Task: inverse folding
């Protein structure tokens, strides 16, 4: 590299060259005392060298918490979220899905997780002023085939779900053309998909939402109980790829997760994330939980809820943890037009 670009004293640069350092990254990989020994520089000079190398390597300037609060970093879009296309659900999530980081939606089979994913795949296509990102979505299936019939039904019912929007706007969007479907059968194919094909779609601006349905399927089927370390290694590789894509392109990542039964009896080593009264916990353990920024749980409830004369089995959407959200929950139902939250005044499930 051009060492003169570091803007350091020529005496320090001469010592760095004499020690045969070839890049600023190499300098950052060496601890201060070791760097002193190799370059014969003073502690203060090594500190200046480390700071200059960090500035040279960093692709964008550092951002302080004060700058975020004041809204001085528009590239991070602190106030924008991907809307759920429902005021009640958006209120729970303070606007919707955050644009950076992994959001997990966990729940038992038939809880309605895929319904949320499909709805977000349509919501992302609306203009930003209407809660979308004006782009498409990539939907990665690891279990079942993509529910194309349900997607078509949701598309046809968009005027009913979004009565607040002009009909001309809804009909001007070619929803089905902007959802890219990937089917993967093993972990190798999954990693190839998120590291090779998905970045191309993001780079071209064709998508702004990545959905993985589900993340647990392949990791649970390809590893035995005694292969926990190897599974964790693959999980970290996969999650780091998703985080990089999300942060580089400002694209929310939604991962559906399965659940595992809670075994009765004391287990001091188990982490329940505050779900002490739950009979099930999100799958893949703490190794995966540490990679998730927002964890949501979806549970099917007994009884039914009525809306416009139509009934639906109630679901409870709960925020388990998130850096910007309190522990909270709301009831919702799945109707022909999609998922809609239930107002507090109507949150008593009825017997049907």
Result:
């Amino acid at each position: 590299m051009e060492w003169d670009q570091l803007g350091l004293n020529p005496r320090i640069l001469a010592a760095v060259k004499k020690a045969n350092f070839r890049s600023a990254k190499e300098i950052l990989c060496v601890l201060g005392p070791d760097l002193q020994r190799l370059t014969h520089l003073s502690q203060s000079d090594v500190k200046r060298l480390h700071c200059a190398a960090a500035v040279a390597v960093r692709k964008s300037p550092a951002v302080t918490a004060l700058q975020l609060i004041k809204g001085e970093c528009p590239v991070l879009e602190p106030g924008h979220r991907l809307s759920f296309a429902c005021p009640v659900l958006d209120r729970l999530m303070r606007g919707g899905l955050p644009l950076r980081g992994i959001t997990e939606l966990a729940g038992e089979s038939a809880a309605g997780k895929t319904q949320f994913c499909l709805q977000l795949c349509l919501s992302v296509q609306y203009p930003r002023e209407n809660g979308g990102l004006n782009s498409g979505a990539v939907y990665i299936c690891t279990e079942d085939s993509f529910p194309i019939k349900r997607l078509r039904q949701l598309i046809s019912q968009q005027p009913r779900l979004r009565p607040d929007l002009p009909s001309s706007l809804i009909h001007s969007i070619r929803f089905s053309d902007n959802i890219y479907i990937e089917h993967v059968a093993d972990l190798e194919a999954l990693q190839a998909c998120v590291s090779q094909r998905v970045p191309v779609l993001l780079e071209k601006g064709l998508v702004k939402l990545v959905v993985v349905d589900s993340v647990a399927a392949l990791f649970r089927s390809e590893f035995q109980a005694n292969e926990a370390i190897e599974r964790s290694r693959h999980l970290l590789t996969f999650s780091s790829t998703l985080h990089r894509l999300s942060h580089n392109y400002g694209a929310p990542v939604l991962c559906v997760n399965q659940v595992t039964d809670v075994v009765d009896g004391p287990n001091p080593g188990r982490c329940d994330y505050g779900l002490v009264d739950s009979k099930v916990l999100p799958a893949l353990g703490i190794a995966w939980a540490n990679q998730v920024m927002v964890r949501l749980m979806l549970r099917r409830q007994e009884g039914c809820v009525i809306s416009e004369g139509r009934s639906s089995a109630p679901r409870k959407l709960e925020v388990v943890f998130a850096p910007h959200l309190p522990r909270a929950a709301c009831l919702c139902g799945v109707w022909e037009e999609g998922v809609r939250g239930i107002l507090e005044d109507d949150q008593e499930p009825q017997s049907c």
User: Anything to note?
Assistant: The chain has 14 helices and 15 strands.
